[in-house]
Design brief:
This protein has 246 residues and is of the alpha/beta class. It has helices spanning 2-32, 84-92, 107-110, 113-116, 134-145, 186-191, 229-245, and strands spanning 49-53, 57-62, 68-73, 95-100, 126-132, 152-156, 173-178, 201-205. The longest helix has 31 residues, at 2-32.
């Protein structure tokens, strides 16, 4: 009887330890994936950009005439504000940028939101769908399920599409990835090239890692970048603008 009580006591202790470790890990994830190092001016209006926060998205809108609308899907669990600097600079360069707030911070739960929110209503604009990591995966899924609705697709730091085939779509596609990405490695990116059209534009950023495509903390499995976040963001911006304007 005493041995049985002792075993039960040890089980309770181990269960408690696992619970503490699990809660600590989740807490660390939430902290690590929070936005960081973002100047508050990013969310302020200026002479050339108007910033609007809605329940389901942020909008960065040029105050002058524009032709392009970029809709952005954040990575899994990442604070959407981590992508606000990129969206802001896109707007400063003449694109309206809409940064989607995903349910539970998961693009798998909200990738249809642009359609549900009627964000494609203005038929005079060109619509570019972009996403990072899981956001890129679900952006590809959206294009797969809605052929012809999106004018261009930008996939950042992802090995997807893996489970769907976009090789026959007419939508121009660009995939951006980093040589130091430990989450979506170069080998894995190249492995799935057959799932994209033959004219897909591939952009390898030397020294770039996974997390620096946004402004948030270090991500599990990632490698340390050889370039600064600012450098990675600027190179990414330049390629996006070039692709949009082609």
């Amino acid at each position: 009887m005493r041995d049985l009580k002792k075993r039960w006591s040890w089980r309770k202790i181990l269960r408690t330890i696992w619970m503490i470790l699990g809660i600590s890990f989740i807490g660390w994830l939430l902290y690590s994936y929070q936005s960081k190092d973002i100047d508050k001016v990013i969310f302020e209006n200026s002479l050339i950009v108007k910033v609007v926060e809605e329940k389901d998205f942020y909008s960065f809108i040029p105050t002058y005439e524009y032709h392009y609308v970029v809709i952005f899907y954040p990575g899994a669990l990442v604070d959407p504000k981590a992508y606000a600097p990129l969206c802001r600079t896109l707007s400063e360069n003449g694109c309206k940028a809409i940064l989607i707030k995903m349910p539970w911070r998961l693009a798998t739960k909200g990738y249809n939101r642009p359609k549900e929110l009627n964000l494609f209503a203005d038929t005079t604009k060109q619509y570019i769908l972009a996403g990072h990591s899981q956001g890129a995966k679900m952006a590809a899924q959206f294009v797969y399920e809605n052929p012809g609705l999106i004018d261009k697709l930008i996939l950042m730091a992802t090995t997807h599409p893996r489970d769907i085939d976009l090789s026959d779509v007419k939508t121009p596609i660009m995939k951006i990835y980093g040589s130091k990405d430990g989450v979506a490695s170069m080998d894995e990116v190249n492995k799935n090239k057959s799932k994209l059209p033959s004219d897909t534009q591939y952009v390898l950023i030397e020294g770039a890692n996974h997390a620096q495509f946004g402004f948030y903390g270090f991500q599990i499995g990632d490698h340390r970048a050889d370039i600064t976040r600012q450098e990675q963001q600027q190179i990414t911006l330049n390629h996006i603008l070039s692709f949009i304007e082609q």
